[in-house]
Write a structure and sequence with these properties.
With 230 residues, the chain is an alpha/beta fold. It has eight helices and nine strands. Strand 7, helix 6 and strand 8 (193-197) form a beta-alpha-beta unit. The longest helix has 18 residues, at 173-190.
Length: 230
């Protein structure tokens, strides 16, 4: 089992001083190479769940085990190292560094893992159709092209697990379909498992394994105004 989660819990303080439990997942798992889509209402805890898996957030309780190693309960430095070696994260807003070129964004992502490999960075960008735009900065690219850079960066360290948070949310339908195909294909090529969050029915319809967060999460939904924690 690549990813195994047990009794995972995360809460936030509310403006009225109470505590709102956002994630309360008794059990969740993924096998190597598995591709799973996760859906849920706005504010249901989807992004928080991904961030817990990635080690960006720490839970109040529970265990997250990735490739046989615990993420929860270890130091921030060790979480960063494990994430860099094992996880690729495609953010909804891409999180590209605006002052850096396409290839520099990918190389910087590599620097947190095994180290920069320019040949592999060029190959990845070529695979996603940006071989002629290596030296372009994000503002010189379309939204769809920027997402391709984010996909290449997420795969740069040959992760065993790719997390994708609403990766088609900022794209038109044609670009969304193309991007989804690209993400799934590149994960298959690299043997990576994929956990993708989406509310788009057409996107969800492409997956054989679709799970509603409400079915695995015992927490009440976070208010819509708290979508930053969704």
């Amino acid at each position: 089992m690549l990813l195994n989660i047990e009794n995972l819990r995360k809460s936030y303080g509310t403006p009225d001083g109470s505590v709102q439990v956002v994630v309360d997942v008794p059990s969740f798992s993924l096998e190597s190479g598995q591709q799973t889509a996760l859906c849920g209402t706005s504010g249901a805890g989807k992004t928080t769940f991904l961030n817990l898996i990635a080690g960006i957030l720490q839970p109040e309780q529970g265990r997250i085990e990735l490739d046989g190693r615990a993420i929860s309960g270890i130091s921030e430095a060790k979480r960063d190292q494990l994430r860099a070696r094992t996880i690729g994260y495609i953010f909804q807003t891409f999180n590209l560094l605006q002052g850096y070129t396409c290839i520099e964004n990918v190389l910087l992502g590599m620097s947190f893992g095994p180290g920069a490999d320019r040949r592999w960075a060029r190959e990845l960008l070529g695979r996603v159709g940006l071989g002629q735009r290596l030296d372009h900065v994000p503002r010189q690219l379309s939204t769809g092209q920027q997402q391709r850079v984010a996909v290449a960066r997420a795969l740069a360290n040959r992760p065993k697990l790719v997390l994708a948070d609403e990766p088609t949310g900022n794209l038109d339908p044609a670009s969304a379909a193309e991007s989804l195909g690209l993400i799934r294909e590149t994960c298959r090529e690299n043997g990576a498992a994929l956990l993708l969050v989406s509310h788009n029915r057409e996107v969800l319809g492409q997956f054989d394994d679709v799970r509603n967060l409400a079915d695995i999460n015992h927490a009440a939904a976070w208010p819509s105004a708290g979508e930053a924690q969704s």
